[in-house]
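Hi there,

I know you've been waiting on this one. I reran it after we fixed the sequence typo, so this is the corrected version. Both the input and the resulting structure follow.
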Amino acid sequence: MSTPPSTASAGWLAALQAQVRELLDPAVFDWLVGGSGLEESLTATQSAWSEVALRPDAGFDVSSVDLTTDLLGSRLSAPIGIAPTGFHALVHPDGETATSAASSAAGLLFTLSSRASQRFDAIVQPDQVWWFQPYVMRDRGLTREQIQQATALGARAMVLTVDAPVLPARRQSRNGRLVTNEIMTMNAPHTTDLTTLEQSPSTTVDDVEWIHDASGLPVVVKGVVRDDTAARFVNAGAAAIWVSNHGGRQLDGAVAPVRALPRIVDEVGDRAQVYLDGGVRSGVDVLRALALGANAVFLGRAPLYGLAIDGEQGVTEVLHRMINELRVAMQLSGRTRIDQLGRDLIWS
């Protein structure tokens, strides 16, 4: 993987995206980078980060920085994780096995999508810290089977995505169907009717308890941008809220996650952990989210750029770049531990 430029904070990731455009089939590239509708949410999700001005402190010894953090009882090397994204094999034949291995080697958290393009048991490692993202599918029996399989393989939490009861028109829609039946049924080998794999539009707050009962694991609710929604799910037993607008791929015009984050932290942050994804392009963006109250930040497209370019090594370089940028951003802000990051670092 070529060395990314070290100019503007977003420059290296933009350079990776440009490389990926040259490597991938145009239809696959559209699937990877595109959003829904007019892509207003996609654009706003990225641009909103620059509106969060930092207020760095100074005059402290920052020669040593500790990025370690605890997420639902698991100790990790940094508050950065890989978000659940499907069908990694579309961008590189090593697929999720490479993404998972890079995450594990870096000591970060990997979230396995139920839409994985490889078998679950080939993707994760026995001692790895990982969570599983089940969709509540129309076939709830199949959903329970996948949850129990992931639990048996060592998942440490379940991530319930709630912002995709139906699918809108997306940029990739114009390209037709990209994913084969073989990939769709990779982890549902006895399924022939693909409609049973669709997410159920009847998913509700009651499914937090249903998933917890099926797995015995903490349930993280992903796809929340409202504080009252977050409160309902925490009241229903959610251990954490994941602020996300699905990468701008669901309701177009939805608020950028970084804008929604402070209200959600204020509403439920004393009762549940709060995470965020969406438009993160640098370690400075990670710092911004942590200062606003997030416990961790997850990356969706960025690891897949690295995967497309250089497989596992490409993912590793993206993760290390984000970690190193976060470390430097903390030093330049006068902070040396994650628990020292707060809203005093945000200009308001």
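Quick highlight: The chain has one domain: 11-341.

Best,
R. S.
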